[in-house]
Design a protein that fits this description.
By secondary structure, the protein is α/β, with parallel strands linked by helices. The chain is 50% helix and 15% strand. Strands 1, 2, 3, 4, 5, 6, 7 and 8 form an eight-stranded mixed beta sheet that branches.
């Protein structure tokens, strides 16, 4: 059973009543089909209404849901023949960024993404999706390989931000992120990015400076987490919900601002409830975007990408 978020509590109570009735019927051989059907219809209606009117802070909670599909699940569902490539050839292999060669509908691609993990052991192993400098340097190395062999690059974004520890700073975290952004802007192959959960800070943009930026309907994408923003502006993380509203971090806001290119719809209740359906939709959107980009020359792809991000800073000027 999916874990219910705090704002889903009324729905959880209805689901609980349905389960109680089913359990009672099994024990006493009662016919309660009509009652269960009415409650289920009410729960479904409440779910649709709730997810059609999510606040920015509620979308933050959905994007962070522990059952939300992770990058490694997308690799299995969207691609075939995945061959992982490890290490940055300088320091070590950062497990928070995973990448390698794969096939997408017969097209060879380089796929790179941030992995948070789905249980305590894997979350620790993948550092909760917070890359260190060697993770970004690995991403740069894989982009270079893709560029040399003329392979499209597809990146998946799901990070609370780059790792803020002192050892990361000692090994050049800011430089690694900047170089990764530069690498995204200089490769001459199609580059597609999709935000599947959290897209926070330079930790996200480092591998998301793409020709086409896709974003799941209930994902978030921002320069800083709402809690971090609230701590800076109001000296209190308790103002996170207000910060989320002001930051314009939802897919709908970002599409209107021209920061992303496409919203990938999620089923009612979010990706965590119907992961297979979401991953099929993600694959379709990636294939569509890739087919469109493949029509351009290498130089055009590079120029289009650079112009796209330069124009963002001009919006609203003059």
């Amino acid at each position: 059973m999916n874990k219910f978020l705090e704002f889903e509590k009324p729905i959880a109570e209805l689901v609980g009543k349905i389960e109680e009735l089913k359990h009672l019927a099994n024990n006493k051989d009662l016919n309660i089909a009509d009652e269960v059907s009415k409650l289920q219809s009410k729960a479904d209606k409440m779910m649709r209404s709730t997810y059609a009117n999510l606040s920015p802070w509620q979308k933050v909670l959905v994007a962070r849901h522990p059952d939300r599909p992770r990058f490694l699940q997308y690799i299995e569902a969207v691609f075939t023949d995945f061959v992982p490539l490890a290490g940055d050839r300088l320091f070590s292999d950062d497990q928070s960024i995973v990448g390698g060669l794969a096939s997408l509908n017969g097209q060879s691609v380089m796929v790179i993404g941030q992995e948070k993990g789905n249980d305590t052991e894997s979350r620790v192993r993948h550092n909760f999706g917070m890359p260190k400098p060697e993770g970004y340097r690995k991403a740069q190395r894989l982009m270079d390989i893709a560029n040399n062999f003329k392979l499209p690059v597809i990146t998946f974004i799901d990070t609370p931000g780059a790792y803020p520890g002192i050892e990361a700073e000692e090994r050049g975290q800011a430089e690694a992120i900047a170089k990764s952004i530069e690498k995204c802007l200089t490769i001459e192959v199609p580059l597609i990015s999709i935000v599947i959960g959290e897209g926070s800070s330079g930790g996200a943009i480092a591998i998301a400076t793409a020709n086409s930026v896709l974003m799941l309907e209930h994902a978030i994408y921002a320069v800083i987490s709402p809690e971090g923003c609230a701590s800076i502006l109001w000296r209190s993380s308790a103002k996170a919900a207000e910060a989320a509203e002001a930051q314009k971090i939802t897919a709908q806001d970002l599409l209107a601002l021209g920061i992303i290119d496409t919203i990938v719809p999620e089923p009612v209740g979010g990706a965590q409830r119907f992961p297979e359906q979401v991953m099929d939709s993600v694959k379709l959107h990636i294939v569509t975007a890739l087919n469109e980009l493949m029509r351009n020359s290498r130089q055009q792809l590079k120029q289009m990408r650079r112009e796209k991000f330069l124009k963002m800073g001009q919006r609203g000027l003059g």
